[in-house]
Amino acid sequence: MDLKEAIYGRRAVREFTAESVDEEVLRQLIDAAVQAPSAVNQQPWLFTVVRDKALLARISREAKAHMLRTSAAALASHHFQSVLENPEFDIFYDAPAMIVISASAGPWIVEDCALAAENVMLAACAAGLGTCWIGFAQGWLGTPEGKSALRLSSTTVPVAPIIVGHPKTAAAPVPRTTPKIDWIS
Ligand SMILES: Cc1cc2nc3c(=O)[nH]c(=O)nc-3n(C[C@H](O)[C@H](O)[C@H](O)COP(=O)(O)O)c2cc1C
Fold first, then answer.
1. Closest Cα to atom 7, ligand 1: which residue?
2. Residue 155, phi then psi, degrees to nearest 5
3. What residues does ligand 1 touch, defined as CB less than 6 Å away?
4. Integer Cα distance of 70 and 32 in angstroms
5. pTM score, two decimals?
C-alpha cells in the first residue's frame, strides 16, 4: 500500500474479529512509530502494549466512571453521558490489543507522541489492521491509579491510547469539511 492509500484509506475502526495481533506485527507498528519526528530529536516515547483482556476491561470501567465524575457537563453536550453509563459499553470495542504511547514531562511530548501515534495508525492500515485513538481512556490513565495499571512512573504522561485489531468490516469514510485556508502572499 502506498502512502496516499494509507492516508486516505485509514479509518477509525470500532469492530474487530477475535483474532489476536502477532507480537512481531505489534513490534513493526512500534518501529514505524519511532520513525516520527520528535522535538530536539528527544524520541521521548515509551510504548505500553496491553493484551490482557481483564486489564482492558478494568481500564474501560474505570475510565467511564472517571469521565462521568469529572466531565459531566462536557459529556452531556456531546450526548456521551448515556453511552458511558452503559455497563455493556466497552470503550475499547473488544479490541485484542492497545498500544499506549507515553512520555515523561517535557514541552513537546504531546506533539511527539501524537506524531508517533499517526505512524502507528498508518502502518497498521497498510498491514490490513484497524486502529482507533481512544481519548475516552486518557483521563483515567493519567491518574496515579491509571499510571500504576500501565506500570508508568508518576512523571510519565500517557498521551495516545491506540487500540489495534483485525477489522471485522470496512469502516465507512467520515466526510471531511472543506478546510479553511488563508493564503497570505
Ligand atoms: C485525540 C482523539 C481521540 C479520540 N477518541 C476516541 C474515542 O474515545 N472513542 C472513539 O470511538 N473514537 C475516538 N477517536 C476517533 C475519532 O472519532 C475519529 O478519528 C473521527 O471520527 C474521524 O474518523 P476517521 O478516523 O475514520 O477518519 C479519537 C480520535 C482522536 C484523534
1. 134
2. -95, 0
3. 11-12, 14, 132-136, 171, 174
4. 35
5. 0.97
